[in-house]
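Before a colleague's protein record goes any further, I have to sign it off. What it holds is a sequence and that sequence's fold in token form. My question to you is simply how this chain folds and whether the tokens agree. Thanks in advance; the entry in question is below:
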Amino acid sequence: MIDIKIFKQRLVLRTPFRIAHGTYDYRENVFIVLRKGAFTGYGEAPGVPYYGVSADEIAADLRAGLGSRRIQGLISELISRNIGVYPRFAYPASAGAFQSAVVGLQSAMENKTPASILGIGISGEVGLGITQTQEVPPTSFTIAYDENIQNMVQRAADSGFSRLKIKAGIPGDIERIRRIREKLPEASIRIDANQGWSLKEAPGSIAALERLGVECIEEPSAGTPKEIEQLARNTSVPIILDESVRDIDHLRRYLAEAPSISGIVVKIAKTGGPAAALSLINAARDAGLQIMLSSMVESSLGIGAALPLAPLCTWIDLDSPLLLADNLFTGLSYPDEIPSIQTGGLHPSPELRAFIESLPTFYQE
């Protein structure tokens, strides 16, 4: 017997999160719970305003996909045998949440790591927790834009992280980054412009950041592959693509028309789940690209779903639980700046657990 529950939760940020796409005090994410006997799998889908999909739409999409006649009666078989029959979802975030929950449930039922369920080949033991023996890179810590330069500088210094991801693409960004560099001359600084620079201003911004010794720049501008190629060809700073590359078809287009790009950003919610993200990572690696494994604003649950992919990536940006005022799931820590699932695994907080138990079952077979 398997039952499914779907619900929304608001994730409040510690400080307002301003990027080129807007300012946010919270995000509303959708969660799915798959339960079979004593075993449970969880998935998370972030509702991201600038991707044009709300939490309500994601929740409705999950219910529609899991309520279809095609999938009814097959979910238990899918989870038990991995037969590859998946519901059709309108949004990648919906597919990502469901696939993450399936991987988590299979991992618990088979006493294997999520990596081995995905076929990555990372050895480890699973009791109630997960141990990976392949190296996970340290994560960056995100510094959102602040009108007060000193606030940004102090936040960077107080983070304790030696790798910083600084949001740009907003007026005054270069001066803010310069001040952070002066305060932290040894820090590795990664820039995410979120397509905030125009094609006209991007070359000047990139040149200034090159002089400041930044490690890489994400999504400098919204432009055609040929326009992005022009930017990437004229700098020594690696230019990597996030919003522009959401699947393998996008990747192929940029490989053909923008050969100077250095890498891509992969997010399981953007690509449709850990298996889809793994396929994109493998395609990018085969093409000689570097990969940044990242997340949207997600709880520890979303980060845990991405972690099995981390050893395959050059950089990781999996700090979002540290940006939240309250974490819905416990069991993730950051020793030496490396995200790690503690012995005992990830578990909903007592308050969230009680909330989940109070919910009606959406589907049962």
